[in-house]
Specification:
By secondary structure, the protein is of the alpha/beta class. It has helices at residues 2-14, 58-68, 80-84, 92-103, 116-121, 147-154; strands at residues 23-29, 34-40, 45-50, 74-78, 109-113, 129-134, 137-143.
Length: 162
């Protein structure tokens, strides 16, 4: 229990502080290949949903957040390691699952495959999480376990993005 409590504390201690990274560098699972993508965390608002394919509530959470924040792009971030528990290297089985998962998502929800170190930098130990970063500052880093936590996170978005 101590490790879980420490991870939760580390997530909460991020709130109000600078994001641990200036940008996310990852890959979108394109139709025929992986497409490089960079997402700025220093300018504008970034809504991130760290997830794994084995976290069954993630699709519902992604749909809820897309509905609650129709103007805000959403990045569902994951890593090879988070999905396999093995080395952080490309897996054709995971890629197939990610492509299938992407087809069921609203167009504004993009999967971004990042190095596992990115998930560790944001203290992603449970899934799905909701991380809201605005102009380089972390505004939320919380477990998305209910509609209430989803609404609470979205309430911190600028009105133009809700």
């Amino acid at each position: 229990d101590l490790a879980l409590m420490q991870a939760a504390l580390e997530r909460q201690q991020m709130v109000g502080k600078s994001a641990p990274l200036m940008s996310l560098h990852g890959y979108l699972p394109g139709t025929n290949s992986l497409v490089p993508r960079t997402v700025s965390l220093k300018r504008g608002t970034a809504l991130l949903i760290p997830f794994t394919l084995w976290s069954p509530s993630t699709p519902e959470v992604a749909h809820d957040l897309a509905r609650l924040s129709p103007q805000q792009p959403i990045y569902a971030i994951t890593s090879w390691h988070a999905n396999t528990g093995r080395d952080d290297v490309r897996s054709s089985e995971v890629l197939k699952g990610l492509r299938s998962w992407q087809r069921g998502m609203p167009k504004k929800v993009s999967i971004l495959i990042v190095p596992d170190s990115v998930l560790r930098d944001f203290h992603c130990d449970v899934f799905p999480l909701g991380i809201l970063i605005r102009d380089g500052t972390v505004h939320s880093n919380t477990v998305l376990s209910s509609e209430g936590t989803e609404r609470f996170m979205v309430a911190d978005l600028p009105k133009a993005q809700r």
